[in-house]
Amino acid sequence: MGDGTYNVLECPELGRYGVAGRDLKAGDRLFEERPFAVGPKLDSPPLCLECCCPVDGGDTGPRCARCGWPLCEDCSGATDQLVYHRDECEVFSACGVRFRPVDDSTAGCVQLDCITPLRVLLAKEADEARWMREIEPMEYHDAERRESANWKVDENNIVAFLRGPCKLGDRFTAELVQRAIGLLDVNAFEGRTCNGYSLRGLYPQLAIMAHNCVPNVVHSIHPSDGFRLEARVAVDVPEGEKLYTTYTYTLTGTVARQSILKMSKFFTCHCTRCLDPTELGTHFSTLLCNKCHAGFIITTDPLDENAEWRCAQCNFKTSGAAVQKAVMTIHNEIDELACLEYEASRLESYESVYKKYRSVLHPQHFINTSIRHSLIELYGRIPGYEMAELPDILLERKVELCRSILRVLDVFEPGKSRARAMILYELHAPLIMLAQSAFTRGEDNRDGKSLKQQLTEAAHILEECGEILEWEDPMTPEGILANVAKQSLAQLRQSIETLD
Which candidate in 21, 54, 156, 311 could, as Cys together with 289 as Cys, close a disulfide (CB 3.0–4.6 Å)? Predict the structure, then answer.
């Protein structure tokens, strides 16, 4: 498979999984593939069924002239060029089933839950050979899904709808429709359009890779090229070693990751990170003890959300439920900050919440990491805190925020990951400005480094950032940033040469 870069093996615990077919170097391409189908995620609010941008789902919202389902104004004006909506448009037009207007265009729209399963079914009809070769062997956890509450909901909202009003009962059995739903629930990966709108896609080769909460495989999806996916190894992987992707967000704590995996993927992860109460020494879910003021409160069993949490120093105990309640309270407070206007008070509110919980959360706790991400995006961009206005102390604050996140990423997403590249880009600018600031003040060096050494360090950071982001679609924000990083690097190298 993948030109010998990986082999597919099988075992009772993992089912099918991939191993390196030869010694692989960080950045080596494993494979590329086209999605079997792409479409809206579950519970999406009204969106354009061609480009996935949000639309008004009310009476006056834009619609496809042929079938009456949501299309944005740009896409509805170019119906002869439709790619993703074309086939379901024929289904809806033929049966006369139109989209029913909704009152709230920000809430999940249950009518759209049928779209991506329908696209999987239509793709099966169009390419039966690929279905048999790549989709037929895929796991869809039929027995476990039948026991879940979602089965009956899907039976009503999707299976009955497609086979009844949409008149597809002769083409697709109820079992096959449920299988399409299960295939997506268990195997789909999130992608984004060129404009950054979220969707999901079925990528059979990537789905072969086993899950781990510390992946060694990264992937980039290219929306401008039919959502083509490229998978690479992020680190060196010796021949025969397992290849791991991740089905969750690496920067969430163990309780949340386990919950997502159990609910949607129907398994419990037993990776090294999940089995370690300290999450590989990062203390990503650890609380600080307010009884002895020096101890760390960690779970006694990471795989049991109800397990007792205990201070390693003074043996203070609390329940898993109490910990989750505290975490949820802080989460809700942070979620409210995301609604604030894009002005100085937004940044200051994040800083004050960060300080507020300093005595509660371990410095590297996932909530602190999330706040750092928000602050990194705000420092240098928000009015009153734009890059040219930042004093050295705030430039140093941004540098420390970036380095803190990189310390976490080095453990959870080691090697050449997109997340690392984005933080490296944020890091390079304050480093350059601090170097220039020291030079302007007549200081020959800063932290024992000359101006040239400091600028060279920033150049290495930009170079690494660009090397990772050049794998992205050039039409996406990350791909555009790759080009910006390349240009900035060329200018920086010119500046460094003048210092010789």
Answer: 311
- CB-based contacts of 409: which residues, under 8 Å, 6+ apart? 417, 419, 420, 423
Residue 438 Cα distances to 399, 430, 493, angstroms: 15, 12, 19
Of 74-78, 170-174, 243-247, give the lowest mean pLDDT range.
74-78
Chain-wide mean pLDDT for the chain?
95
User: Model confidence over 58-88: pLDDT tens digits?
Assistant: 999 999 999 999 999 999 888 788 999 999 9
Residues 6 or more apart whose CB falls under 8 angstroms from that of 175 comprise none
pLDDT digit string, tens, across residues 457-492: 999 999 999 999 999 999 999 999 999 999 999 999
The CATH number of domain 6-35+204-245 is 2.170.270.10:
yes
CA distance linking residue 370 with residue 418, whole number of Å: 16
Coil, strand, or helix at residue 54? Answer: strand
Q: Both tokens of residue 435?
A: 């170097």
Question: Do strands 210-211 and 244-245 pair parallel, antiparallel, or not at all (unpaired)?
Answer: parallel
Closest CA relative to residue 431, chosen from 469, 408, 402, 465: 402
3-state SS of 412-465 is HCCCCCHHHHHHHHHHHHHHHHHHHHHHHCCCCEECCEEHHHHHHHHHHHHHHH
Domain boundaries, the chain: 6-35+204-245, 37-187, 287-498
CATH topology for 287-498 is 1.25.40
CB 206 within 8 A of CB 188: no
| Residue 90 Cα to chain centre, angstroms | 33
Q: What angle do CA 268, 273, 278 make, to 5 degrees?
A: 120
What is the rounded end-to-end Cα distance, in angstroms, of the chain?
50
d(CA 88, CA 94) in angstroms, rounded, equals 10
DSSP 40-52: PPTTPPSB-TTT-
Each residue's pLDDT tens digit, 353-378: 999 999 999 999 999 999 999 999 99
**Type and span of the H or E element at 219:** strand 217-222
Residue 281 predicted with pLDDT over 70? yes
CA pair distance 268, 380, nearest whole angstrom? 41
> What type of residue sits at position 387?
M
Is the separation of the CB atoms in 111 and 98 below 8 Å? no
